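INTERNAL AUDIT FORM
Audit reference: QA-55
Scope: verify that the stored structure record matches its stored sequence.
Auditor: D.O.
Record contents follow.
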Amino acid sequence: MTPFPLPPLLLRQWVETALQEALGDAGDHPTLATVPMGNPLTATISTRQAGVVAGVDLAATAFEMVDPDLVVQIHADDGTKVVAGAPLLSVEGEARSLLTAERTALNMLGHLSGIATATRALVDAVEGTDTHITCTLKSLPGLRAFQKFA
């Protein structure tokens, strides 16, 4: 766990908004049309390349909000440096539920981990100098707290 985790209320508010936008009133059409009910599924989200992880708690919250019966296991906390192929989290449960939440979870994991990885590269580049990396004002409304966290 990071030394400064984002408040669960903030996580839940953003995930609810993201899921409403992604699913609308009708739900996840592709999953509903192609995946029968009652199919168990286990999935692991892994990295494609080395970097710094950010957004794991958001991803876990997305799965848990779509279906509280999904079992989420976190393998890498926010702020962790990982190698390519490292597992970040695993999810087990109803396939429809898992697939309904996965796009929201993956989008935030990718976006925030990209920010965290780029920030770490900049911090490493100025190590040993009098230069300090600070946050930018160029963040997106609705995502500002998460982007600055990353």
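Auditor finding: record pair retrieved intact. The first strand starts at residue 40 and ends at 46.
Action required: none
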